[in-house]
Amino acid sequence: MTTTEKPIPRVDDLSRPFWEAANRGELTLQRCRECGQWRYPPSWGCPNCLSEGTEWAPVSGRGALYSWVVFHRSYHPAFEVPYNVAIVELEEGPRLMSNVVECSLEDLRVGMPLEVTFERVTEEITLPKFRPRTP
Amino acid sequence: MSIQGKTAVVGLGYTAQGRVPGRTALSFYMEASRNALADAGMRASDVDGIIIQPCPTDHSISFGSLAQELGIALRFGADQQAHGASAATIIQHAAMAVHTGLCKSVLCAFADTSQSAPLRGSVIYQRALGTDAAYGLFGVASGYALAARRHMEEYGTTSRQLGAVAVAFRKHAALNPRAQMRQPITIDDHQASRLVVEPLHLLDMCLVSDGGRAFIITSADHARSLRQPPVYILGFGQGHPIDSLLRRPSLTTTGAVQSGRLAFQMAGVSPADIDVALIYDAFTSAVIVQLEDLGFCAKGEGGPFVEDGRLELGGPLPANTSGGLLSDVYLQGWVGPPEAVLQLRKQGGERQVRDAELAVVTGSGGVLSTHGTIILGDKR
C-alpha cells in the first residue's frame, strides 16, 4: 500500500544537488558566486544580488533549533503521532525544515544546539535530520 | 489629492453560511452580490467594476463570471489573490479605481464551499506542504504553530493567553445569530480542547465554511445619496514580507507593521483612537502578533494585552465582534470588513460597540505572509 509510505521529496533540476549530496551523507547549500550569500530553499538566482552564478557547497551541519511544532493529529497514515517538525537555523544562516531526532519532545527548546544526521529513506532519497549536540 | 475619506463602503451582502450543502460557489457569489446591491439600494447596472477573490474550491470563476450572471458590462475588472489578505487589499484597489475615475462603483466578492463541496476544505487547508511533507509537515495550521511557538519562546506568550482570544470572540459569536459556533467557552475549555499541532489546540483554529460575502465601494459623494449611512475609507496599506517561513527574517514580526503604519498615517489617526478592531483570526496567535505589529501594544506584550477581557465587548478594545473566523464563519479575510461597516453604521444589534466611530480591519494570507490594513470611519 503506497498510502502507508511517507511522502518523499520531489527532486527537480533545482534541488537535485541537495538530494545527491544528502545521499552521500553531505549537507550542501547554494552559495552565490558573486556576493557569497548562502540560501535555502533552492532558487535560480540570488535574492541578495540577483546573480545567477551559484555553487553548491558543503555547510558545517551545525545549527540551532529556531522553532518546532508537535503534531498530535495525523494528517498522513505513515506518520505516527506525536512527532515533531522543526525549523533549524544553520550556523551559515539559512534555515531548513526537518525533524529533531534522538531527543524527547519535552526536551526541545528554541536555541538548543543541533547537528545534522542522515536518514536514508529510499535508494534516491536521504533526509537530513538533526540531533542535539554539545556546544 | 489624497484618497483619504474620498471613497466609502455602501453595500453589504451576506449569505447562508456554515455547512450549506448542494450549493455552487457561483451561487454564493451571486447571493452575496444581490444582497449587497439591495442593501445599498443600487441596481446591478449601477455597478461598473468588479474585483473578486478567486474561490478556493472552484477556480473557474472570475470577475467576468459574476458580471455575466449580473448581466452587466464592466469598465474595470480583476481577480485578486492575496489569500487571507484579499478582502483588505481588494478594498484598496477598488478605492483607487473609483478615486481615479476608472469606474464609479466596484462590487467586491468572495465565496467558498470548503465545508461541503466539491473540493473539500480538508484537501485544501490540510494539504501536504511540498518537500517538507517528507518531514511530516501538513496543513496551514502547522506554519502558524511554528510562528506561535517562536513567539512563546521569545516573549513568554502562553497557551492560556491564546485561549483568551478564543473566549472573547466566542462570547461575541453568542450575540450573532448568523455565527456558526455560539456556545460560550472558557479558557479551561480551550485548554481541554485537543492539541492539533502543538502549541495550537483545536479552539485556536478557525472554522471551515460554505458561504460568501460582498460589498460595494463607491465615491464618498455618491455614497451619501444611497440607502445606508456611508462608511468612509480613511486609510489603507499593505505589507508583504518574504513568503517562505525559512527565508523570512522574522516569524514573530509581520507585514502588519508596514501595512498598519501606512494605514494609520493616511487616516491621520493612531491605535488609541480605534473603537473596534477586526483582526484576521484564522488562528488565535495571529491576533496577538498583529495587535503588536499595529502598535496596540509593544512587541512581545500581545499575550498579556489580550488577557482580562480587553478584546471583549465592554472592554477597552472590542475586537472581532461577529465572532471572527474562529467562531462566526471562515471566509478568509471577508468577515472583518463587513462587520466593521455594520458597527460603524450602528447596526450591530446586541453586539454593537457603543459610539463606534473608527474601526481598523486587517487581512493576512498564507502564513502571516500577506497583509492589508484598512481604517474605516463613520465620518470623513
What is the compact description of this entry?
Chain A is 6% helix and 36% strand.
Tell me what you see in this structure:
The complex is a heterodimer of chains A (135) and B (380). Chain A has 135 residues and is mostly beta strands. Chain A has one domain. Chain A has one helix spanning 16-23; strands at residues 28-32, 38-39, 54-58, 62-71, 83-90, 95-98, 113-120, 126-132. In chain A, a hairpin with a 5-residue loop joins β7 and β8. Chain A is globular. Chain B has 380 residues and is of the alpha/beta class. Chain B is 33% helix and 18% strand. Chain B contains 13 helices and 11 strands. In chain B, α6 crosses α10 (284-294). The longest helix of chain B is centred in the first third of the chain and has 16 residues, at 25-40. The chains are: A mainly beta (135), B alpha/beta (380). At the A-B interface, β4, β5 and β6 of A face α5 and β5 of B. β4 of chain A pairs antiparallel with β5 (195-198) of chain B, so a sheet runs across the interface.
